[in-house]
Amino acid sequence: MKPQALIFDIDGTLAETEELHRKAFNLAFTNADLKWSWNREKYRELLAVAGGKERIHHFITEDDPTQAGRENLAEWIAGLHKAKTGLYTGLLAAGRIELRPGVERLIREVHEQGMRLAIATTTSMANITALFDATLGHEVLSWFEVIGAAEQATRKKPDPLVYLWVLEQLDLPATECLAIEDTHNGVQSASGAGIAVLVTQSYYSEGEDFSGAVAVLSDLGEPHQPYQVLAGVDDTPGQVDLQWLQARFASQG
Ligand code: XBP
Questions:
Q1: Is 9 a catalytic residue?
Q2: CATH code of the domain occupying 5-16+98-252
Q3: What CATH number was assigned to the domain covering residues 18-93?
Q4: pLDDT average per 10 residues of sequence, the chain (253 residues)
């Protein structure tokens, strides 16, 4: 059976956005007169917790428990996170974020060939829109028929909730969809919903456990910049296209 829909994760999969997220968190902390500063090592550790609000909450519990006694803690975190979202979208608009190799090529091919497109992420709709505005544009975002974001994922990845919601909206069984992810949490979330997952490892997910994924690649590859196989398939370096996905998908079914 041919896959009917391709579901993309956002952060780390479409582009290496986590460094901008980290910058935005740190700017929001400074603006709120907090002494917190997340360096790369700390952020790598904190990425185990998906979702910005959940990440801040986890950090308070582990590293600054005196803040946990604040009145209306959840509301305070939500305000801090809202400020971070404003800073993040501003950084995206002002800077030059590049899509990862093969992302634009594959999205365009999938759309042209009539396969359905969807998004399953734990970040917010505002951040998705800002990323597309800074890269592929609004028209390409409209090709994504279903967008599951933080607003739907009340339980964040690795929970399968966001993928289950996307499947329901697409009105497709998991066996007719494929997901592209970059993290352990993403693999757990998609495969927990019964969806076959391809991993393109990202800067922050290097070394994570991707068991359950169909394959782990360095990226989606371009004709002049082939992907490297990291696990799962016995391929020579190349590029992921629709034919590649259909062949892997068939071997899963
Ligand atoms: C990655 C995340 C996100 C971002 C921060 O999500 O965990 O939480 O790091 O985004 P995904 P917010 O891989 O599912 O795209 O601050 O907007 O939560």
A1: yes
A2: 3.40.50.1000
A3: 1.10.150.240
A4: 92 97 98 96 96 96 92 95 97 93 98 97 96 96 97 93 98 96 98 97 96 95 93 83 85 56
pLDDT at 189: 98
Atom of ligand 1 nearest to the CA of 84: 16
Where are the domains positioned within the chain? 5-16+98-252, 18-93
Could you tell me the pTM of the whole model? 0.94
Q: Peptide bond before 158: cis, by omega within 30 degrees of 0?
A: yes
Buried b (16+ CB within 10 A) or exposed e, 219-251: bbbbeeebbebbebeebeebbbbbebbbebbee
Q: To test the ligand 1 pocket, which listed residue (16, 55, 203, 208) has its Cβ within 8 A of the most ligand atoms?
A: 55
Cα separation, 15 vs 71, whole angstroms: 37
Ligand 1 pocket test target in 81, 82, 84, 123 with most atoms within 8 Å of CB: 123
For the Cβ of 77 lying below 6 angstroms from any atom of ligand 1, the answer is no
- Residue 241 annotated as catalytic: no
11 in ligand 1 pocket by Cβ < 6 Å?
Answer: yes
Which residue has 């690795």 as its token pair? Answer: 158
